[in-house]
Design brief:
By secondary structure, the protein is α/β, with parallel strands linked by helices. The chain contains six helices and 19 strands. Strands 1, 2, 5, 6, 7, 8 and 19 form a seven-stranded mixed β-sheet that branches. β12, α5 and β13 form a beta-alpha-beta unit. It binds flavin-adenine dinucleotide.
């Protein structure tokens, strides 16, 4: 049996497992794919104290750091259910059931994709999902933001301070973002907002993005915009479908946590992009993983 069982091998889970192991706790980590979203990231410039790194390189360092400790790494294993019956039980897809005194959930999230031709081909080559991460790569260039919700309009305002011009493409007739954000975006000279626009294809020159095609849903007319970058902001989906009913989730499916990472189920903690904690970033995920592990340690010495 484990003292601390971590679900997820991204930055949150890696940090949680190191903090737990350093307390002398018997720690295991179950990960469908060690590294998480970081494994899919090209350049990383905002991991403080490291001026520049690349996703796969950071994943190798994360794994090497975890392996410094006596952590049982169960990679390529998917958790499918969580129960508490005295001990906490984690069921894996392969049928195994692991018992633990505490669990730290850090299954992360995935960006909702447009699912149009060119999106996968040019991912990291102009197609981006994180304005805080990749905005500066498009300094002085033209970009589009897909999605007119809060994250899309915030991204447009953020990017407008860096890039030459931002076009927002929104599928619906109205923007869903808060009025104060829409007002701010409308006041900025280098933001153009187009509603009733259905993105249909990311175009490129074979090595990087050079534009986007969209259809005007009112008239059916096809349009093309020349640009260097496309920020897809149509939602971040937490990987928590399997936790429904086990721990309390927000309406968006995020695991509800308090300031110590404690969930609604005593002894079960959570960290990273899968939680209600705002701002989804590597450094924030790591910090919350450390918090959750210390929270779990506190819980264990009291129970
Ligand atoms: P994740 O990294 O999503 O890891 C989740 C882990 O849980 C994975 O190991 C996954 O396999 C596992 N898992 C999920 N479900 C299960 C299950 N049921 N059973 C077992 N394991 C499971 N942030 C920055 O700070 N800087 C950047 O430059 C940056 N660039 C980015 C670029 C891209 C393309 C993307 C997608 C994200 C980027 N981010 C960046 C965001 C950053 O990657 C995330 O905030 C961070 O990885 C979140 O960490 P996490 O540990 O919470 O989750």
């Amino acid at each position: 049996d484990f003292d601390v069982l971590v679900v997820g091998g991204g930055p949150a889970g890696a940090a949680a497992s190191i903090y737990a192991a350093r307390k002398g706790l018997n720690t295991g980590i179950v990960a469908e794919r060690f590294g998480g979203q970081v494994a899919d990231t090209v350049g990383i410039e905002n991991f403080i104290s490291v001026q520049y790194t690349e996703g796969p390189k950071l994943v190798n360092s994360l794994e090497a750091h975890v392996r410094e400790y006596n952590v049982d790494i169960m990679n390529n294993q998917r958790a499918v259910a969580l129960r508490k019956d005295g001990k906490i039980q984690l069921e894996l897809q392969n049928g195994a059931v692991l018992n633990s005194k505490t669990v730290i959930l850090s299954p992360g999230a995935r960006w909702r994709e447009m699912n149009v031709p060119g999106e996968q081909e040019y991912r990291g080559k102009g197609v981006a999902y994180c304005p805080h991460c990749d905005g500066p790569l498009f300094k002085g260039k033209k970009v589009a933001v897909i999605g007119g919700g809060n994250s899309g309009i915030e991204a447009a305002i953020d990017l407008a301070g860096i890039v030459e011009h931002v076009t927002v493409l929104e599928f619906a007739a109205e923007l869903r973002a808060d009025a104060v954000l829409v007002k701010k975006a409308n006041s900025m000279a280098n933001i153009t907002i187009i509603t009733e626009a259905q993105s249909t294809e990311v175009t490129g020159d074979g090595s990087k993005v050079n534009g986007i095609n969209y259809t005007d849903r009112k008239t059916g007319a096809a349009h093309h915009i020349e640009l260097a970058g496309i920020f897809v902001q149509i939602g971040l989906v937490p990987n928590t479908e399997w936790l429904r009913g086990a721990v309390e989730l927000s309406p968006r499916g995020e695991i509800i946590v308090d300031e110590r990472g404690q969930t609604s189920l005593p002894g079960v903690f959570a960290a990273g992009d899968a939680t209600t904690a705002p701002y989804k970033q590597i450094i924030i995920a790591m910090g919350s993983g450390a918090t959750a592990a210390l929270g779990a340690f506190d819980y264990m010495i009291r129970n």
